[in-house]
Amino acid sequence: MASTLLRGKTALVTGSTSGIGLGMARALAAEGANIVFNGFGDAAEIAQLQAATAREFGVQTAYHNADMSKAGEIEALFAFAADKFGGIDVLVNNAGIQHVANVEDFPVEKWDSIIAINLTSAFHTSRLALPHMRAQDWGRIINLASAHGLVGSAGKSAYVAAKHGLVGLTKVTALETAQTGVTANAICPGFVLTPLVQKQVDARAVKDGLSNDEAKRALLADKQPSGEFVTPEELGALAVFLCSDAAKQVRGVAWNMDGGWVAQ
């Protein structure tokens, strides 16, 4: 029997055409939520993804290609969602990009893009989602931060700054909604084998003359004591818990799911 935890509610997951975002969208759809997909990719493949999700879980789906670095496009995304579904009940801020370089070598335009997409977009989506959530006295804001929202790594200044900022934004949003039915929390994954992380694996394989599997093991050995990647499905299950009544007093948490990364 299909779950009805989120039946009749609508979830927007940014950056949901692949990777963690897609895992989140599927987990929420499995609980009955209508899904607004967002992200880049081949139009035919995205249409197929929408149709498959709707068919598999018996929900409605929509797609908007808003560039999450642009406030005007984010506003258009929310107008689209309001017109189609009446508003956003569950907001998952997942869109993100990465670049690795030392501070003195970091391209200014890369810094600006990472801060815009990984942090500022979550401010815009939150400010646009909250009026509807407050009006119905129920809502869930889930920000995909990172283990890098809790600790640093050399070469990742913009990403670490953005993810630390996202944890801070989460705490403030949680405090401002503390006496309402709206909650805000952050999930802080360790390494997940997304296309973003696969690029790091590929670069390491080339640099160190390793096979792909050896490069994966070496990457995990640096940071993640479990030696295993976190999966999008595991993160999706945590998001579902945060949407449940059992989590209504979980507010402002930065919940790491990282194979022991920040326990060290």
TrEMBL record:
Signal peptide location: none
Biological processes annotated in GO: monocarboxylic acid metabolic process
Gene3D superfamilies: NAD(P)-binding Rossmann-like Domain (3.40.50.720)
Entry keyword annotation includes Oxidoreductase: yes
Family annotation (InterPro entries): 3-OHbutyrate_DH, NAD(P)-bd_dom_sf, Sc_DH/Rdtase_CS, SDR, SDR_fam
One matching Pfam family: adh_short
Gene Ontology molecular function, alphabetical: 3-hydroxybutyrate dehydrogenase activity
UniProt-recorded name of the protein: 3-hydroxybutyrate dehydrogenase
The protein's Enzyme Commission number: 1.1.1.30
Domain of life the protein comes from: Bacteria
Family designation: Belongs to the short-chain dehydrogenases/reductases (SDR) family.
